[in-house]
Each structure stands twice: as C-alpha cells, then as structure tokens.
C-alpha cells in the first residue's frame, strides 16, 4: 500500500502574547491507501493546526510533510486531496449542482457527463432533490452533505475531514459512514478529526491521540480492546443518584464502567444501597482510554517536573 500522508518530525511554534508557543511537537504519523485515520484530542490540542500544516495554510514549520510522496508545501501535493471543514462556507447564492460543477472546474476535471456525474454524487449523499435550490435555503445537515459531496465529486485519493458528521441526524450519520467505508474499500485514504468518540470507533482503522501539541499514542481498535480488557461494563438497578457518573438507560436502570479490580467493592456498595447487578461484560470505550492517556501524560510531566 502506498503512503498517502506522512508527517516526519513536524514541530510548529508561533508568537503569542510576547512568548513563543509550541502548537505541534515532533509529530510523526502516516496514513496509507485504504486506511481511515482518526485524530482525537481536546479543544486546543493541535488538531486544526495539523490540518493547516497539511493544507499549506501553515508552512513555516520544522520537519517534513508529504502527500503521496510530494512535499506538502508544493501546490501539486494538494491535487489528490479534498478537504471538508467543520463549518463549510459554501457560496450561499449558488445551488448544490453549481457548487459541484465548480469543484470539477477548479480541479481542471473535464467530463462530458459533468452534470449527470454531479447529480449522481448528490444522489449518493441524499441531496439530489435539492440540486437546484440555493445553499442558503438548505438546513445545516444538508449543507454538510453538499460539502461532503463537493469533496467527493473530484474523486480524491485523500480525504481530510474536520468533524465530518457534525450537524447530521442519526440517519445522515449512518449514510455518510457507509459512503466513507465504500470510499475506503475503493482504496481512498481518510484523515479526520472528531470530538464524537463513538464515531471515531465506528470509522477509524487507527486512532491518534493528541494533546497540547504532542501525539501521545497511535493505536488500532484491536490494541485498544486488548488494553481495556480489564475494564468492565456493569448494568445494574439502583435508586437515582446512587452513582452520579452512571449512564441512565431507563428509570431505575443504569450502566457504568468499572475496573475489574474495583468490581467487588462496587457490588458491595451497590448491594448495601439496595441495588443489584443485572449484567457484567467487557467494556471497550475509546472515551475511557482517551482520558486515561491524558491522565498518564499529565502524571508523567509532573514526575519529570519534580
């Protein structure tokens, strides 16, 4: 498999309030053809900066970024790439059909069946019925669909997506996930960011966790499952308020993640409160891993500081 995207030793600093601030610190990662790479991190972690580097919006960084082997600072590197931001700024006076035909023109793609091709892509994203309506007349979810169709119409080899499922209802999220999986099967590479960790688990082949400009780890779902084998998901009956952090499934029924070593104490506390366990099963939660990685990173920094 060819390497679609590669970061090698990438660091970036900028001047903020009179001080040099480091936004990225020695980032090393790669995405291959047919792979979906999820980039996860809290606000201000460096996700958007990473995308700006890849798009050559930021180019005064240290290190090397390449797209299909071409230096990302060169214009031709972005020819195989399409990008969809979290809040797409499409021309509101244009129609979806015009937006897609404009994309073909900007990429220098000439097709005799341009209109039919654009309509087929809009159909894939379930917005063909709005093909001739103005963007300003569409809902936020449909604008997001048009933005994704705009990216796909040029048949890119690499898709860069910032919160791709933002603004979509559950049906729309499933539709887009299906389209992205189909694109992946055809050999396309995807790099995307998301705050919705459940979506990352559904789509990504590998996850990268970034915080304060540092790439803390890169893992696959299989590695994630192995690491969290000691984490259990307990479903139980109890009075409201017994465990404030538990997820309420229905009245009197809750779900909570408990480490295996802590399970006996949890059951004892539950029984004393008049509740009882319904089921216990392994829990593989990206959210749990995410916060554990952040906690471990902060703990290591504190130990170094001491």
TrEMBL record:
UniProt key word ATP-binding: yes
Origin superkingdom: Bacteria
SMART domains: AAA
GO molecular function, one term: ATP hydrolysis activity
Matches recorded under CDD domains: ABC_DR_subfamily_A
Residue stretches making up the ABC transporter domain: 5-237
Key words, A-Z: ATP-binding, Nucleotide-binding, Transport
Pfam families: ABC_tran
PANTHER family named among the record's database cross-references: ABC TRANSPORTER ATP-BINDING PROTEIN ALBC-RELATED
UniProt protein name: ABC transporter ATP-binding protein
């Amino acid at each position: 498999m060819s390497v679609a995207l590669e970061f090698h030793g990438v660091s970036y600093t900028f001047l903020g309030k009179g001080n040099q601030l480091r936004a990225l610190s020695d980032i090393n990662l790669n995405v291959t053809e047919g792979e979906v790479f999820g980039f996860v991190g809290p606000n201000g972690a460096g996700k958007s900066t990473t995308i700006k580097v890849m798009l050559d919006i930021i180019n005064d960084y240290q290190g090397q970024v390449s797209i299909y082997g071409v230096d990302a600072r060169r214009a031709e590197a972005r020819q195989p790439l399409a990008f969809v931001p979290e809040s797409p700024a499409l021309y509101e006076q244009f129609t979806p059909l015009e937006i897609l035909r404009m994309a073909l023109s900007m990429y220098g793609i000439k097709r005799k069946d341009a209109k039919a091709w654009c309509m087929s892509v809009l159909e894939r994203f379930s917005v063909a019925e709005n093909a001739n309506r103005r963007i300003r007349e569409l809902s936020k979810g449909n604008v997001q669909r048009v933005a994704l169709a705009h990216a796909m119409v040029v048949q890119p080899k690499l898709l860069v997506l910032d919160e791709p499922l933002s603004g979509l209802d559950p049906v729309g999220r499933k539709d887009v996930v299906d389209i992205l999986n189909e694109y992946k099967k055809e050999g396309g590479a995807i790099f995307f960011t998301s705050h919705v960790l459940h979506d990352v688990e559904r789509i990504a082949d590998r996850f990268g966790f970034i915080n304060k400009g540092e790439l803390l780890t890169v893992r696959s779902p299989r590695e994630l499952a192995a690491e969290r084998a000691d984490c259990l998901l307990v479903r139980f009956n109890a009075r409201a308020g017994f465990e404030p952090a538990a997820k309420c499934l229905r009245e009197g029924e809750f779900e909570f993640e408990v480490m295996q070593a802590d399970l006996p104490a949890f059951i004892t506390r539950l029984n004393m409160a008049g509740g009882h366990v319904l089921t216990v099963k392994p829990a593989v939660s990206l959210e749990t891993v995410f916060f554990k990685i952040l906690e471990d990173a902060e703990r290591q920094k504190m130990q170094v500081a001491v």
